[in-house]
Structure formats: C-alpha cells, structure tokens
Design brief:
It is built from three helices and four strands, in the order ααββββα. The protein is α+β, with helices and mostly antiparallel strands.
C-alpha cells in the first residue's frame, strides 16, 4: 500500500513539474504576448491568443497578431515562431 501511495505521489509531482518549470522560468502567456508584440512590431493590446495546446515542457499557440494569424511554439521556457522552431529542429 505504501509503494502505491509513493508511486502515485511521484507521478503527480513529475507531471506538475512542466507547469511549474514554465512559470518559474518565465514562460507564461503574458510573456508570450510580450515576446510576440516585440518580434512582430505590434502593440500588446493587439495580440490575442486564439487557441492553445499544452504538453509537459512545450506548447503551441495560435495567435491573432494585429489581424494576422500566427502560430508560436513554446520549447521549454522559450517562445518561437512555428516556422523558425521547425527549421531549427530540422538542421
């Protein structure tokens, strides 16, 4: 019984680490909006998150950036435009 409890506690702790690491590392949605606004030369108020898909350690965001649809990926605590992230991993 103890082993099951310890196993479940360990699994729960490890699964929550992705969210905790994103928050502690500064990878929050407000940081995403700030990053996109600077990179795209668009005011923060004109950057809206349309859709998001989060996994442990990474996420994908669909954004409305000054009326243009863009996709950004989160890899660890870094946000990067989807096309740039894909080309980086292909090299």
């Amino acid at each position: 019984m103890k082993n099951i409890f310890y196993s479940l506690t360990l699994v729960g702790t490890l699964m929550s680490c992705g969210a905790a690491m994103r928050t502690m590392g500064g990878a929050t949605e407000s940081k995403l909006i700030e990053t996109v606004a600077v990179e795209q030369g668009c005011p923060r108020e004109s950057v809206k998150i349309i859709d998001k898909s989060k996994n442990s350690g990474n996420a994908t965001y669909a954004l409305d950036v000054c009326g243009k649809r863009m996709v950004y990926k989160q890899i660890g605590s870094v946000f990067m435009e989807s096309g740039k992230a894909d080309s980086m991993f292909q090299k």
